[in-house]
Specification:
The chain has a 7-stranded mixed beta sheet, with helices on both faces. A 5-stranded mixed beta sheet has the order 11-10-12-14-13, sandwiched between helices. It has a two-stranded antiparallel ribbon with strand order 1-2. Helix content is 32%, strand content 24%. It starts with a helix and ends with a helix. It folds into 2 domains: 151 residues, 2-Layer Sandwich (Fructose-1,6-Bisphosphatase, Chain A, domain 1); 110 residues, D-Maltodextrin-Binding Protein, domain 2 (3-Layer(aba) Sandwich). By secondary structure, the protein is of the alpha+beta class. It is globular and about 55 Å long.
């Protein structure tokens, strides 16, 4: 099954409408909405997440009858949903609000992410920035681009390769196990600059648009990475698990490192994941 540019437009419309109607009206009104923790004090969910996921799921089901819908919040209630990604003829993986901690904090660094998979292969990625009213899209084999609500359109391209000392990286240390967490933390000085937005949606957009060189993650829930992985790949980038094996949305462990190209990936892996003598 192959999705078309018309399907991209449909998904873009769904994302824009849910942002206008469900997400932005609740932004910076945290005292008026319910906020709960899930797996830890750092893992939050709000009524905006849950409402947005319900609306997106309903609209995708209407537009793509028979598709399997796998949302972050729904999967928190039924983890077995993850097992449906591989065999599904068409599945949509949804992160209704990526960067919920930023959303709750009143920071406009959050977004909505959708990936479409066909029998476990990612064929479409979309990442909506509700604050800036634009969406980054990737269609497998057809490139990546940014479409703004005012009609502007930009092709996305990763940064040129650079030596580690000149690289800018977005590094998520949170879920790295020891001793790897300490190793990576000690090795950050080998890079030119490192940071974290607490939001994979914006970090993937940053890398796909050439504004940083590297992304490093450990926890690989598919809603956090499947859309951005395709965006980065279609913008010309290379990524793999820490052991060099290819990323799949059914792989939830093994880490993920994204770089401008394969040679740069190996340089970055050596710089970040190798313990100092």
């Amino acid at each position: 099954m192959k999705l078309s540019h018309a399907d991209v437009t449909t998904i873009g419309t769904i994302l824009a409408e849910v942002g206008r109607n469900e997400i932005m009206p609740r932004f910076r009104r945290v005292r008026e909405i319910e906020v709960r923790t899930k797996t830890s004090a750092f893992d939050l969910v709000t009524e905006a997440d849950e409402t947005a996921e319900r609306v997106i799921s309903a609209e995708l089901t209407r537009a793509f009858p028979g598709a399997v819908i796998i949302g972050e919040e729904g999967t928190a209630r039924d983890a077995a949903m993850l097992e449906r990604i591989g065999p599904a003829e068409l599945a949509f993986i949804i992160d209704p609000i990526d960067g919920t901690r930023n959303f709750v904090s009143g920071l406009p660094l959050f977004g909505t992410m959708i990936a479409a998979t066909v029998r476990g292969e990612i064929v479409l990625g979309a990442i909506r920035d509700h604050a800036c009213a634009d969406t980054a899209f990737a269609l497998r084999g057809e490139g990546a681009w940014l479409a703004a609500d005012d009609g502007r359109h930009f092709d996305l391209k990763v940064a040129r390769p650079a030596s580690p000392k000149d690289m800018e990286a977005m590094v998520g240390l949170n879920y790295l196990p020891e001793p790897l967490r300490t190793t990576v933390a000690q090795n950050l000085s080998r890079l030119g600059m490192s940071a974290s937005f607490r939001c994979a949606a914006h970090e993937y957009r940053l890398a796909a648009s050439g504004q940083c060189h590297l992304l490093l993650y450990n926890k690989l829930m598919p809603w956090d990475h499947a859309p951005g992985w395709l965006l980065h790949r279609e913008a010309g980038g290379f990524s793999a698990h820490f052991d060099g094996s290819p990323y799949k949305p059914v792989n939830f462990t093994g880490g993920l490192l994204c770089a401008p190209d394969e040679a740069n990936w190996h340089e970055a892996r050596q710089a970040l994941l190798t313990a100092k003598a």
